[in-house]
């Protein structure tokens, strides 16, 4: 028998807020976190805007020595994890430590460390490269440090599947609890790539918006005038638990995780498969795993990156799976407000989806002024909407053809 799994705590570091209440209020009110980049000189870059995390103080979550020894993506992850643990009320002790694990992903990992230490090597020589360079760089270190800080000794791993990372991490953690390998998991994604090298690479791909004069209107999923995605940074971390474990300790349950699907496009390293075929299979697998029919879905938190091909492919995939019901359900992209947080996006958007179910409020797709004729679904344009929704999907799709979907359900005792 598969065990039931619920969400009991969440933590967020994001361009629209560094705590869950601010984050959710920003999404509900359609507030954009995208602006001109302040962390480095963007004069020579075609794209000069991003969803930067503002006013983040890592020393609020770790001591100064540890700050110097960790990359920014790890700092985000640890902050969100501690927030989620406090939110959940879960305590780790000698009796339960080996039944609580950590599964945090990052699409790129410690790129800021790589950039900085490369400069050090060129300017001062190889002997001056930090002895912490490797542990600061590697993508699994968010899971590792969180495990150490929390004392969690259960299954601990990480996912690296580009923009599907956060959802794969949550889905894999969900499986571990379902099949009895853990009673609780700290899971999600973190990313910190608003950096010169990352921007140079994405600009060379011509993948990002160049609407530099109107940064808050630059991320416009499903809109006819979209011109690319807007990069963001941050972390979204959830505490998920076996239902009886959560009930026994009197935890407040935010939502239930009921299904998980993943697939590969096997098509192209960056472009989606034709007609969204891979994304469609992913959603179909998630629905099958959840044991629900397509017409039971009331809301989809879309991948919706504001790219020409991606938004159309996802729309086509939704139509393939849901048929006529596709026009009855609501779809929105919170990336219109946060930007695209790459490996963190699955964690952050899972939290947004869980809150939508909890509060029965659907966050909007802002900047949807002139809908693309090929994107003709209900994208909750510009304003949040009250709606009765029992089951929802959260989609994430990544470079390399990785697709991941989780199914969440409104929890009713």
Automatic annotation (TrEMBL):
Lineage: superkingdom: Bacteria
Transmembrane stretches, start-end: none
Protein's gene: fabF
Organism listed in the record: Brevibacillus fluminis
Swiss-Prot/TrEMBL catalytic activity: (9Z)-hexadecenoyl-[ACP] + malonyl-[ACP] + H(+) = 3-oxo-(11Z)-octadecenoyl-[ACP] + holo-[ACP] + CO2; a fatty acyl-[ACP] + malonyl-[ACP] + H(+) = a 3-oxoacyl-[ACP] + holo-[ACP] + CO2
CDD domains cross-referenced by the UniProt entry: KAS_I_II (cd00834)
Cross-referenced SUPFAM superfamilies: Thiolase-like
Name of the protein in its database record: 3-oxoacyl-[acyl-carrier-protein] synthase 2
Entry-linked SMART domains: PKS_KS
GO cellular component, one term: cytosol
PROSITE patterns cross-referenced by the UniProt entry: KS3_1 (PS00606), KS3_2 (PS52004)
The organism's taxonomic lineage, starting at the top: Bacteria, Bacillati, Bacillota, Bacilli, Bacillales
Pathway: Lipid metabolism; fatty acid biosynthesis
